[in-house]
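User: Show me an example of a complex going from sequences to structure tokens.

Assistant: Sure. Here are the input components:
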Amino acid sequence: MASLTDLINLDLSDTTEKIIAEYIWIGGSGLDIRSKGRTLPGPVTNPSKLPKWNYDGSSTGQAPGDDSEVILYPQAIFKDPFRRGNNILVICDCYTPAGEPIPTNKRYNAAKIFSHPDVVAEEPWYGIEQEYTLLQKDVKWPLGWPIGGFPGPQGPYYCAAGADKSFGRDIVDAHYKACLYAGINISGINGEVMPGQWEFQVGPTVGISSGDQVWAARYILERITEIAGVVLSFDPKPIQGDWNGAGAHTNYSTKSMRSDGGYDVIKSAIEKLGKRHKEHIAAYGEGNERRLTGRHETADINTFLWGVANRGASIRVGRETEKDGKGYFEDRRPASNMDPYVVTSMIAETTILRKP
Amino acid sequence: MALLTDLINLNLSDTTEQIIAEYIWIGGSGLDIRSKARTLPGPVTDPSKLPKWNYDGSSTGQAPGDDSEVILYPQAIFKDPFRRGNNILVICDCYTPAGVPIPTNKRYNAAKVFSHPDVAVEEPWYGIEQEYTLLQKDVKWPLGWPVGGFPGPQGPYYCSVGADKSFGRDIVDAHYKACLYAGIQISGINGEVMPGQWEFQVGPAVGISSGDQVWAARYILERITEIAGVVVSFDPKPIQGDWNGAGAHTNYSTKSMRNDGGYEVIKAAIEKLGKKHKEHIAAYGEGNERRLTGRHETADINTFLWGVANRGASIRVGRETEQNGKGYFEDRRPASNMDPYVVTSMIAETTILWKP
């Protein structure tokens, strides 16, 4: 019989101009990613040229059944690594028919902050280190772990190679290339301290684009784990006990920080963040208190601490930045399940728009 | 040894002008799709240039054994996504040797309705949302469901991503591209509320072409599930209990509805449909009473209700249509196992030809 793969890999550009656009949005939990596909008459590269669409919000906890339409506004386009050709992935955000952002739409507010002239002038750059855990399907136990038991203690697994130390590399490598293909600014990957846990980094990206790219990368990752028959988890502390949690460390700089004398700008920015520690923590991801314990390379959730090269701090400044007198810093507090629109815009708002 | 795949994928255009035409028809149950193939001397793109053919109707419950020939009249051609090259799929309808449509031939009457001058001038457009359920072979339990048990309740599955939420995407994606290749107006796909259930949309297509394209798309889907070793079901309520059914929502508009002032024409059409609710329901698919309960985004089978953006109604008018004062409406009553020739022509007949 003809194979499914032949059909999935059909290159339609020989037979039609039509393309398939996969519209992607965030569902009612703020972390569930949803998508559906539609046919368009020809290739599109500019999101403003894509039609708005709508979906059944009553099926995602975002609208009542008797008034169920939620409108999708296309915001960013990426090449589709699964369908290839001229087919695309479209990151969208969600509005009522009257044009109001729905409560789970965190992009809208972030876009407002990033278009504030003071923020625009500072060209905020973000590098997000997205950690995640791979779980075996059905049992939801980490990939590579014996069912009903545990692997040997942490030590051998960080950046490891070998069948007894590294679990799921095919997913990670497929994801890396798929994201590069898609046009996402994926800057690297590594195996993490807990076996079955991995990290990819997206950046440096400017402003609102950081959130768009991280969500697109998360979507591509979940499509790939779906193919691999493995379950993806963004839980910040998937396994209790002497096992690392999963974070989304957010590296950040502004034009002033990157210019000569930037180190002082960095220090005053960190001071402003210290004054709003509680507010930031509240927005940095559900369940983070299980992860930010002061152990396992974190600072305690109630403590605001910064230091050069200190992985036990809330904020870490790199040695190179200290030496050069300019550069960037790393907010280590966000959990792996944080919303990048919220975190990136909040850091910009606190450090640029708020007066001390 | 040569692989089967090498042989299946042979490109014959190097060696011969001959093509293979797969003649497709609907069998005695009104839902079983049958097909067989013949060689033709060269490429054909016009159905009227294809020869009539015949088959053994006594093997499909459509003729007695002592007078078993049923004649196939070719009606629509699509490119064959399985054999590719110049090979074709041919949608046919069925006649006695005397030239009379057999009882299961619903296309004949639909074609008469669509060629009525009052209908032709209104250029009726149809968009059909075909839902279907994928079942594991042999056990006939939905794909992705644990055998002997149930998955977690509905909520996470609609438009979802991930190995624990989305089951059978390779079938759906292969079908999308295969239909585009074939020349079917497939306008989109999405994962449905019940896990293992999916939907594709065909349209907008004019008049009789809608039925031809939906049947061709159903045939291609069943060929693809055959390859995947999975069973496709068009049952309108495959699993009893708190699980959505499967429908074939039919979106409809006429020229008058699409023009300025169309909203009044839409309301008048809906009123006529309301007066013939029982007749339509009787023709909208077997077993629909198990699905149209008033729960799970349906209106009760005995109730005729219409509303804007209301997914619990018999007929839903979109917000955009309401806002623009023109557009189309969605008849949500047809079951997934409906015959598109019957449903499309009946809607045209009631709304355009019938004077109450």
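The lines above are the inputs; the final block is the predicted structure for all two components together. The first strand of chain A starts at residue 19 and ends at 26.
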